[in-house]
# Entry
Amino acid sequence: MIPTRIHAVIDWLAVPAVELMGHSRVFSGRVRRLLKGSARAHAVYAAATDYELGAGILPMRAHLGADAAIGVGLIAAGLSLHREPTLVRIMLAGMGMTELLLVSLTDRRRR
# Structure
């Protein structure tokens, strides 16, 4: 199991990375908006989360629920954005699957 402390570090490394991806001209405007929105939503609920790098307001279970929702959304985007290049769609689905994997491996109890 991944401790909440490590999950928090992963969150705070991923947020700026995904935000930067959202500014890359490699992607269409639609994908850039999706990436920036995902990063910003994640930053808001990560900042509020009751884990080592959060404010302690949002329970970890709710945080993981939001992670799962973003993961499913990224997978859905990868499957449905038919006008995007195949590699971009694979990347989005892969990001979503990574998010779901992190949710499934994270210990819900803060230690």
Q: What stands out?
A: The chain has a mean pLDDT of 97. Residues 68 and 100 are 6 Å apart (CA to CA). The chain has one domain: 4-105.
